[in-house]
């Protein structure tokens, strides 16, 4: 009975193994060897621009990236500390500064930092509100949700310095 039930799937798998070369090196198709010899260059894997911010990004990794729904040149990026599971489990529940950065890609040559959103808990995922794109929601590692209003001047960056909130 078992053979009768799985015979079709086994035959299908065997046929696909005959058609597809499972031992082929997929990296050969990227075009790097041809680029070195003056042949064609694979532009799909080229790095166009990079962003480095040592004040907020040092020792962290990006956990989520979202484009602004109305302004595609604005990109929100949440970051978490770059640590292994064992280390993270030891500090679980502890509060420390974490940031969500909003970058401006409107200039073709310079990527600027528009907003620095602070949070006491690391944000693992972010999303713009579907009806109000000035609202950014962040899902924290501890399960909390944080909401930022981007129309407020509290988080805006001016000339590389964070503006102080008006009291």
TrEMBL record:
SUPFAM superfamilies given in the database record: WD40 repeat-like
GO molecular function term, any single one: dynein heavy chain binding
GO biological process: cilium movement involved in cell motility; inner dynein arm assembly
Cytoplasm found in the keyword field: yes
Keywords: Cytoplasm, Repeat, WD repeat
Gene Ontology CC terms, in alphabetical order: inner dynein arm
InterPro entries referenced in this protein's UniProt entry, alphabetically: Dynein_IC (IPR050687), WD40/YVTN_repeat-like_dom_sf (IPR015943), WD40_repeat_dom_sf (IPR036322)
Gene3D superfamilies: YVTN repeat-like/Quinoprotein amine dehydrogenase
Name the UniProt record assigns to this protein: Uncharacterized protein
Naturally occurring in which organism (per UniProt): Strombidium inclinatum
């Amino acid at each position: 009975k078992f053979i009768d039930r799985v015979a079709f799937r086994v035959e299908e798998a065997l046929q696909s193994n005959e058609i597809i070369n499972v031992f082929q090196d997929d990296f050969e198709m990227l075009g790097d060897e041809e680029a070195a010899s003056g042949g064609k260059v694979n532009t799909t894997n080229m790095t166009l621009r990079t962003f480095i911010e040592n004040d907020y990004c040092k020792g962290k990794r990006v956990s989520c990236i979202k484009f602004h729904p109305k302004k595609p040149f604005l990109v929100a990026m949440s970051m978490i500390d770059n640590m292994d599971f064992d280390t993270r489990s030891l500090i679980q529940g502890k509060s420390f500064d974490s940031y969500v950065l909003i970058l401006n890609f409107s200039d073709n040559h310079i990527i600027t930092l528009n907003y620095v959103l602070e949070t006491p808990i690391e944000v693992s995922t972010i999303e713009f509100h579907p009806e109000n794109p000035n609202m950014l929601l962040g899902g924290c590692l501890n399960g909390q949700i944080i909401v930022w209003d981007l129309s407020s001047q509290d988080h805006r960056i001016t000339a590389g310095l964070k503006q102080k909130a008006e009291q």
